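Collaborator request log, item 7. Partner lab (contact: R.S.) asked for a structural prediction of 23S rRNA (Guanosine(2251)-2'-O)-methyltransferase to inform their binding assays.
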Amino acid sequence: MELLLAYYLAEMSTNDYPASPIKISKLNITLLSPLHDLFTMPLILRNPHSVLAALSHRPEEVKEVRFISDQSSGNDVWRDVASTAQKCGVPVITGATSRTGGRRSSKQRGQKSERPGIAEAHVIECGEHSLEEIFSSVLPEENEQAENDQPNGHGLWLAFDQIQDPHNAGAIFRSAAFFGVRGIVLTKDRSAPINATVYDVACGGVETVPFTQQTNLSRTLQIAKDAGLWILGTSEHATENAANIPLDRPWLLVLGNEEKGLRRLTKEQCDMMCALKPAGDVTSLNVSVAAGIMIARLSGHLT
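Returned to partner:
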C-alpha cells in the first residue's frame, strides 16, 4: 500500500496532473484519474492492420508504435502505420525495451511469449457500448437508413454464447465488420477475453463493430426481442436449413460454445433454430467458419 501511494505521489509531483481524490479504507483503496491511466496496461498489437484501424478511430488511445527489428523498414503496411502515427502525434520508437525484447512473460495481456514480432503498438482497449446503443438502429426511424447499409434492408446483430477461443472471437469480429453487422453481444463468464489476440485476428473489426459484454445472455436476448429483433439460434442438430431463413426481418444470430453449443436457456429465447446442411462427409464446421457463412447469408450477400 505504501509503495503504491509513493508511486502515485511521485507521478503527481512530476506531471502536470490536476488534483485527484484519494479514498482509503481498511479494505479498499480508490485512486481516481490519472492513477487509473498509469496502471492501465495497454494491449500490445502486432497486426499492422489492427493498429491502422485504431489510429483511424481513436488515435489518442494509441500510446506508441515501436519498431523492434530492421525488417519493419521493408514492410509497407508498417510504414503506413509509422506515417499515420506521426501525423496523429503518436510516438514512433525504434528498438526493443524490456517489455518487448527477449522472452516475454506469459502473463502479459493477450499475447503469447514466443512471438516477439518485428513491430508492435501499445493501444488502450476499446470502450464497450451499452445495450441501448447496440440495439438503437433497430428502431423504426432508423430502418430507412438501414436499407442503404444492408442488402436485406433490415440489418444483422450477433451474440456469442460463451465462445472461448480468442482466435474464433477475432475471426467472427472480422467477418462481422466485413459484412456490416450492427453490433455484437458477448457473454462475460466462461468466454474469451477481448484481448490483443482478438484485436489482431479481427484486423480492425473490434474497432468498427460496436460490442457489449453481458452477464445474463437470456435476459439480453429478451431485451433484443423487445427492441424488435428476431432471435436465430444455430445448431448442427437443428432441422431447419439455414438457406431457408427469411431475410424480411432484423435478425440477431446467436453462436454457441465451440464444444457445447447453445445453452438451454439461450435456445428457449430463440425464435428459430437452424443448421448449415453439409454437402460432404464432414458434418460440422468451426464456429468462426460457420459464423462467416451465416453472416454472409443473413446479410443478404449469399442466395
